[in-house]
Design goal:
By secondary structure, the protein is an alpha+beta fold. The protein contains five helices and eleven strands. Helices cover 19% and strands 24% of the residues.
Length: 209
């Protein structure tokens, strides 16, 4: 069976792709938990407004080379290593603009629909507005003792994410009416080493124009 590319998934008609046929190594999701676009839109509309200037860190995840998920309670983020133990440091396909995959915790929980939150594959799960208006590229956040910067790299999801959470979730993130909200998340880069603990505050120190 020919594998559908990520680019083709972005343009595919909902219902036209058997997401369980998508082949990759790593953790797999439960198709019965996928939400339709209408259900996602209705649930998003019910979410309370996230904080814009100061929020909290709800979860940290280090992704192993074979899909493992480690959930540390305290780490030291560095510009060289990013999240300790994460596969990013050993994957030369991805530069610093991909260092810390970051998502909004409440949206990640909504999309997961009962599946483990860490299945998303992000490093940081924040209670904070990650939209382009609130956090333009280059904005700086104080996360615990570390300082991180919003990179230019789009966080759009891949076929792993589609298998786990459905085609509608990916396409909703890319829809013109929603794209600026960064429903899938953003990428951060460490620019100042620091210790970070679960529950630490995340504060916008610089918001670029």
């Amino acid at each position: 069976m020919r594998q559908v590319s990520t680019a083709e998934l972005r343009e595919a008609t909902p219902g036209s792709v058997d997401t369980d046929s998508l082949a990759f190594s790593g953790l797999r999701g439960d198709r019965t938990r996928h939400l339709s676009r209408s259900a996602l839109e209705a649930a998003l509309a019910r979410l309370p407004e996230p904080p814009k200037d100061a929020g909290t860190l709800e979860l940290m995840v280090a992704r192993g080379p074979n899909g493992e998920r480690h959930l540390p309670e305290c780490v030291v983020l560095t510009p060289e290593q990013g999240m300790p133990g994460d596969r990013w440091v050993s994957d030369d396909r991805y530069g610093p603009e991909y260092q810390l995959a970051t998502t909004r915790a409440d949206i990640a929980r909504l999309v997961a629909n009962g599946q483990p939150l860490e299945l998303h594959g992000d490093n940081l799960y924040l209670h904070l507005d990650l939209s382009a208006r609130n956090l333009p590229t280059g904005s700086r956040l104080r996360l615990g003792d570390a300082l991180v910067r919003v990179t230019h790299q789009a966080h759009n999801g891949c076929k792993k994410w589609v298998q786990r959470f459905g085609l509608d979730a990916m396409q909703l993130n890319l829809a013109p009416a929603y794209r600026h909200l960064h429903l899938r998340g953003i990428y951060l880069e460490v620019i100042e080493v620091g210790r970070v603990r679960l529950g630490d505050p995340v504060v916008v120190e610089l918001r670029t124009a």
